[in-house]
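Posting this for the archive.
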Amino acid sequence: MAESQALLHEHQDGILRLTINRPERRNALSLALLDRIAAQLAAHRDDPGLRLVVVTATGERAFAAGGDLKELDAVRDETQALAMSRRGRAALDAIRDFPLPVVAALNGLALGGGAELAMACDLRVAAAHAELGFLQGRLNVTTAWGGGIDLLAAAGDRALAILLDAHRLPANEALALGLVHRVARADEPFADCVQDFLRPWLARSPGVLRGFKALSSAWRQALRARLASIEEGHFVSSWVHADHWEAVARDGRERNAGR
């Protein structure tokens, strides 16, 4: 699929829908794709008719099953790792700092970098079969794009166990932990669930939505100011460490064996 089609966008009825469209790659997140998300948000920051943004993905299998492995495999030294971390973080910061609420509609797996993208959004609604997984620890690496900070903000002292366990959390478990705000019923069309989730907020004036989001953004910015350099430093050092690349090789062998 052409890179230009990797992100679809639609602005209708006060909602900007950004749809990741790489189903053949389980909607993996390339840096160019993340740049496109940030660019779309920049283009709509001052839109007077906009009330909400929804970030979702094509299909039912994956919201975003991680970063683009082919791209990430080329990131080998500290300079490259730092550049990759900062580029992805800047794109996700565009979500965190967008002046209106941004909702992640998790149509499927949100793993690794996909979990970071989901948590960068202000709110999350999930399909019944969706799963959220901070799996970075399995590859002996830490969070790259601010997701660890977002998880701490959402889950408090439970966040450390989630990061260390590196397990997939089924949608209802994520709901119980406060990481997801609504889960569709098994018999409920996901699009209907999302629309019902958004309906009360579409009745709010843009000024009210912007005012409440400004408070939330300021709080998140203050937290990032304290913790971002810690997260970034540990990500870079863990990424270039031999333990990470040994885990990547082991994961590759296991994937191949499972085919």
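The chain has a mean pLDDT of 95. The chain is about 50% helix and 15% strand.
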